[in-house]
Amino acid sequence: MHSIVILFNFGSRFELKNDKLDTYMSVNRVILIGNVGQDPRVKYFDTGSAVATFPLATTDRGYTLQNGTQIPERTEWHNIVASNRLAEIVDKYQPGAHAKTAGVLQADEASL
Asked: Given CA atoms 40, 44, 49, 51 in this order, what sign does their dihedral have?
């Protein structure tokens, strides 16, 4: 399983200068569409906040090159982390459900 964590964050905005993105700006945004791999694990805290985690599978379909070479289907697994209100929504997901996620990429500390 990939050691990537998606943190939901919808507050970021791009700033345009002269109708172009600032050349020194960097962007860390990810959109994944796939299938939930197992029941989400949700933790609720005394403060009222919540954090949910679940694996999401994304699949690139197999295909055949013009020379006849078969390229097999490839599935990647992503660890998804959602917090607060989004964690409550994710808590209703079931394995196999189609899910769309948007957030930022963050390396898992264990992989560094």
From this structure: negative
Q: CA distances (Å), 13 to each of 7, 80, 105, 108, in order?
A: 16, 22, 16, 25
Apex 12 CA angle, 97 and 109, nearest 5 = 65
β-partners of residue 36 are: 56
pTM for the full predicted model: 0.71
Q: How many residues does the chain have?
A: 112
**Sequence-ordered list of residues with C-beta below 8 angstroms from that of 88, at least 6 positions apart, any chain:** 42, 50, 52
Mean pLDDT by 10 residues, the chain (112 residues): 44 51 70 94 94 94 95 94 90 92 79 54
CB 103 within 8 A of CB 12: no
What is the H or E stretch that residue 93 is in? none
> Which residues lie across from 44 on neighbouring strands?
50
